[in-house]
Write a structure and sequence with these properties.
Length: 150
């Protein structure tokens, strides 16, 4: 069975598209069938490509990233098995719009490892994006370990 995962941050141009790309990459390395997408709780950047620093950081690690920003939709709560929030604020926003008919497991992505949020690197330099990639890699592996068994 193919896993289906939605990674969510605020604007869908930094953390979540990077998380989407990294989770796909890590699953492919393990031979795990997965469908990953990403979205934002806000509509600030709908239709835009990821931040250039997200793209540069992923490319530096040979991780393909190809995404246009979108906002979370009601259908996502049925279309995905797992919806993983980058931080507590986005988790609360998701819980607030979650329909009663939701079948997705909604969690803080960090809950699979250390319960830490992924800091938003948008207002900082490239170092924040590099840290974000490292954290996304650790969280991807922790998530895959738990849902697929080690």
């Amino acid at each position: 069975m193919t896993l289906s995962v939605l990674i969510v941050c605020l604007g869908n141009i930094c953390r979540s598209p990077m998380g989407e790309a990294v989770l796909k990459h890590e699953a492919e390395k393990r031979g795990i069938a997965i469908n990953v997408d990403s979205a934002g709780t806000g509509a600030y950047h709908v239709g835009e490509p990821p931040d250039e620093r997200t793209v540069a950081t992923c490319r530096e690690h040979n991780i393909p990233v190809n995404h246009l920003a979108r906002q979370v939709e009601q259908s996502d709560f049925k279309d995905f098995q797992y919806i993983l929030a980058a931080d507590e604020s986005n988790l609360r926003n998701l819980e607030a719009v979650r329909p009663r008919s939701s079948t997705a497991e909604l969690r803080l992505w960090g809950s699979y490892l250390d319960n830490k949020p992924i800091p938003d690197p948008y207002y900082g330099g490239i170092t924040g994006f590099q840290r974000c990639l490292e954290q996304c890699t650790k969280l991807s592996n922790a998530f895959l370990d738990e849902v697929e068994g080690k």
